[in-house]
């Protein structure tokens, strides 16, 4: 009888333990399923085929992989409403993580993160202010634009035939200046006699959403003998790509692989895996490893910052040039090449 009672009790506690584990597992799945992310696009919004689209793709990846929910806000005009959009997301009790896409969010999202200490925030291309700590609930997502642009410049230096290459940036800002500086230094690492002609579309956020001006600047540079342009201009870069296709010259794109926009004329793209960085940030929130108060760097070593080399552009780049580019990338990762921030165009 005692033996039978012991068996019954053991089975009871075993089943009770299993039930607790199942309830816990179901609870964890519920948290994962119900996580809600609010994303605010920058100027250009969805359809820019650049960093906004890449960030949105990151949310789609997170939804497909983890079943999260998300909502987003499109900017109006030059994006003057970005602060109110961020505040709207932060005040929504159903939103767990607020993401701002673009350097122009840096000041606003810093201020709002301090106002909503119980909410988690992330900002793509975040610019930390000197002597100002990043709020403990905010994570800045940054990439190695300098190193990636150095590689893009080295590629342009290897391929150019006219020994004239161009750079076109969107908004003249500290982040885009890093693209320019890295590109120029990379070009001159191959041949210091190559001339680099630089131009910017504007001084405000709207410079990232003006493909007409992008095309105008590109046609001007191509008209001056430039045979390769590196663009870092958001949606304005679509105009640069159109100019390359029209003039049958080459362009190096940014943020995403844009070869499909001008097959045969996109030499490469300096990609920033914003989609994967957004996915990683969401996953950090899901598993409890999210850490604010810092910059999360995504660089060349893990190929979050990278250049495109595949069957579609291999003939344009060439096997030997690709080998040289890989050697350069590895030297940057190892610290044997240090990219500065002071190079300027001509």
Looking at this protein, list some descriptive labels:
single chain, 346 residues, alpha/beta, Rossmann fold, six-stranded parallel β-sheet, six-stranded mixed β-sheet, 11 helices, 12 strands, disordered N terminus
Explain how this protein is built.
The protein is of the alpha/beta class and 346 residues long. The chain folds into 2 domains: 35-144 and 275-298, Response regulator (Rossmann fold, 3-Layer(aba) Sandwich); 145-271 and 304-334, 3-Layer(aba) Sandwich (Rossmann fold), CATH 3.40.50.2300. Helices cover 46% and strands 20% of the residues. It has 11 helices and 12 strands. The protein has helices at 2-34, 51-66, 82-91, 106-115, 145-159, 174-190, 211-223, 237-247, 274-287, 314-317, 319-334, and strands at 36-40, 69-73, 97-101, 120-124, 138-143, 164-171, 195-202, 228-232, 250-255, 266-272, 294-298, 305-307. The strands form 2 sheets. Strands 2-1-3-4-5-11 form a 6-stranded parallel sheet, sandwiched between helices. A 6-stranded mixed sheet has the order 7-6-8-9-10-12, sandwiched between helices. α2 runs parallel beside α9 (274-287) and α5 (145-159) runs antiparallel to α11 (319-334). The chain is globular, with a radius of gyration of 24 Å. The relative contact order is 0.14. Residues 1-33 have low confidence and may be disordered.
What is this entry, summarized?
Helices cover 46% and strands 20% of the residues.
């Amino acid at each position: 009888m005692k033996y039978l009672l012991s068996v019954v009790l053991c089975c009871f506690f075993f089943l009770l333990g299993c039930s607790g584990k199942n309830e816990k597992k179901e609870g964890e799945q519920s948290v994962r399923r119900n996580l809600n992310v609010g994303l605010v696009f920058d100027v250009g919004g969805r359809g820019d085929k650049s960093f906004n689209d890449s960030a949105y793709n990151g949310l789609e990846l997170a939804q497909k992989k983890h079943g999260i929910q998300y909502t987003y806000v499109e900017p109006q005009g030059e994006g003057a409403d970005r602060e109110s959009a961020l505040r709207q997301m932060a005040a929504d009790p159903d939103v767990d993580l607020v993401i701002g896409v673009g350097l122009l969010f840096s000041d606003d999202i810093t201020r709002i993160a301090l106002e909503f200490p119980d909410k988690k925030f992330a900002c793509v291309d975040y610019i930390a202010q000197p002597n100002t700590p990043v709020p403990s609930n905010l994570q800045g997502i940054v990439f190695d634009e300098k190193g990636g642009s150095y590689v893009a410049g080295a590629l342009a230096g290897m391929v150019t035939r006219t020994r004239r290459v161009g750079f076109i940036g969107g908004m003249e800002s500290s982040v885009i200046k890093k693209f320019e500086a890295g590109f120029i230094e990379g070009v001159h690492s191959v041949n210091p006699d190559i001339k680099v002609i630089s131009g910017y579309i504007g001084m405000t956020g709207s410079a990232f959403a003006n493909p007409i001006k992008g095309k105008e600047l590109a046609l001007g540079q191509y008209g001056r003998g430039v045979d390769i342009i590196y663009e870092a201009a958001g949606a304005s870069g679509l105009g640069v790509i159109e100019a390359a296709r029209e003039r049958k010259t080459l362009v190096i794109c940014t943020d995403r692989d844009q070869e499909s926009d001008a097959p045969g004329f996109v030499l490469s793209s300096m990609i920033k895996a914003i989609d994967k960085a957004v996915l990683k940030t969401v996953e950090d929130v899901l598993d409890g490893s999210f850490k604010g108060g810092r910059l999360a760097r995504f660089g060349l070593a893990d190929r979050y910052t990278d250049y495109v080399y595949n069957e579609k552009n291999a003939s344009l780049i060439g096997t030997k040039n690709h080998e040289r580019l890989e050697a350069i990338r590895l030297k940057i990762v190892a610290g044997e090449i240090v990219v500065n921030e002071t190079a300027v165009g001509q």
